[in-house]
Amino acid sequence: MDWEDKPVEDWATDYDIFDPEYVKDPKPVWNELRERCPVAHTKRWGGTWMATRYEDLREMVRMVPELSSRSVTVVPPSPELREELIAEAKVYGTENPPITSDPPEHKPYKQLILPFFTPKATESYRGFTENLCHDLIDRIVDKGTGKADAAADYAQQIPARVIAAILGIDPARGDEFTEWTQGILELGQTHPELRSKYRRVIRDFFAELVAQRREEPGDDVISTLIGSEVEGEPVSDHTVIGICNLLLVAGIDTTWSSIGASMWHFAGHPEDRRRMAAEPELFPTAIEEMLRFYGPVMMARKVLEPVEMSGASMCPGDKLILNFPAANHDPEVFDRADEVVLDREQNRHVAFGLGIHRCAGSNLARMEMDVALRVWFDRIPEFELSDPDAVTWAGGQVRGPRSIPVTFPT
Amino acid sequence: MRICVDNDKCQGHNRCKTLAPDLFELDDYGYASAANDGNVPQDQEEKARLAIANCPEFAIEIVEE
Questions:
Q1: Does B59 lie at the interface with A, CB-CB under 8 angstroms?
Q2: Residues of A in contact with B24 (CB under 8 A)
Q3: CATH of the domain at A97
Q4: Which of A37, A62, A208, A329 is the most buried (most CB within 10 A)?
Q5: How close B23 comes to chain A (CA, Å)?
């Protein structure tokens, strides 16, 4: 689709969420759209609407089922995968509940996974996460070069291993999980064949694991899911595999992006870095501010009934992007919206979404960010970008830095 | 001061529990309700206001000032 390589001329009618400049710094576009065309439209990547105002998003998340979660990805799957998904859905229902489901189906599935992610449950993985982060820093420091890639050597290494531990899988497989997740969520967005391939890889992996746990149940999340019921019916293996897929994929790219964006921020803003090193009591508000400022995730909805909103007329069959990161910079809601304020006390950000589809893993993500940043600041309080131009970003529905070269005193 | 959590609005973000742990209770899924029948000790009123101001769902209300 070579027309998709053409530069954007008008962001209100032809935006491109994969445009490299937009991926690097989307704030100017968000600010323009919020003012000029708060529900923008594009024909690129299958065609979508995109909402950028905080108040519009608050209303849209409540418009269920006219704005449906049956399809939450922006770019449509390949025709072959689409056929496969429709055929499977006829037999088994929605693929990755609860994220791909609407009420009334949504609630029992959400309740199935929420107990694994309460503050208490996620705190029980803090010790594991701390040890992991210290091991990663040991490796960085032991090189003795005073150089590291804060994304690839650190941020990227954390979430895959934590979710592996939660699912009762050997954390050493973390690198594979990262590759699979990138295949689906990052590269797979613009390369449908990769998305199909890695979906198959992940489903096959969990199919084997589910069969194994069915034989020898443990007290892990997968065994609990196998034995669970929804509306009095046992959950099918097909759906258990879909939920495992969700738990794996949803927690890796996203949290890695949030940790990475925070590292990038502090490596490039020496005043903020010095404050964090000197005033650790800032961590709770600073982490919320990092989530507000760099929250990585946008979700999509499928329009099922005509919807009029902020000048846009959406029709059944259309797609809509809920741009939560843009809402987090809305000056109607946040004072000094485009400034990082480390001690911001009132911060009603929507980095984890709103409404019934609020990110189920938000407590886990916060715990991982907290540990990752605390351990790094404890071990390497002085660090800076060694080459700001060498920083690379991934974009689309999950935005975050993928390479952050830093130097630090040895 | 007395507060309550609207359980139709609460989606379990848990910001209130983090900011004012003594004023809120969580169920097995992480959804919040006001502890102690919503009664806020005087020395915790500021924490209650902080929890209210940080709830992304606007789910916490002051019933009595």
A1: no
A2: none
A3: 1.10.630.10
A4: A329
A5: 16
Contact B11 A355 (CB under 8 A): yes
pLDDT tens per residue across span A290-309:
999 999 999 999 999 999 99
> A299 pairs with which residues across the strands?
A322
Q: Is residue A410 part of a domain?
A: no
What average pLDDT does the segment B5-30 reach? 98
> What is the average pLDDT score of chain A?
95
Q: Which two tokens stand for residue A369?
A: 């960010």
- Amino acid letter, residue A254: T
Domain that holds residue A117: 2-405
Other Cβ atoms within 10 Å of A241 Cβ, number: 24
What distance lies between CA B31 and its chain's CA centroid? 10
Closest chain A residue to the Cα of B55, Cα to Cα: A348
- Residue B39 distance to chain A (closest CA, Å): 22
Q: Is B54 part of the contact surface with chain A (CB cutoff 8 Å)?
A: yes
Q: What is the CATH number of domain B2-64?
A: 3.30.70.20
Residue A1 has pLDDT above 70, yes or no: no
Nearest Cα to A407, choosing from A380, A370, A368, A378? A380
Which three-class secondary structure string do you get for chain B? CEEEECCCCCCCCCHHHHHCCCCEEECCCCCEEECHHHECCHHHHHHHHHHHHHCCCCCEEEEEC
The whole-angstrom separation of Cα A355 and Cα A200 is: 31
The band of B55, judged by pLDDT with boundaries at 50, 70 and 90, is: very high
What is the rounded radius of gyration, in angstroms, for the C-alpha atoms of chain B? 10
Burial code (b: 16+ CB inside 10 Å, e: under 16) for A71-106 equals ebbbbebeeebeeebeeeeeeebbbbbbbbbbeebb
State whether residue A118 sits within 8 Å of chain B by CB: yes
Q: Output the pLDDT for position A2.
A: 45
Domain boundaries, chain B: 2-64
A93: DSSP letter? -
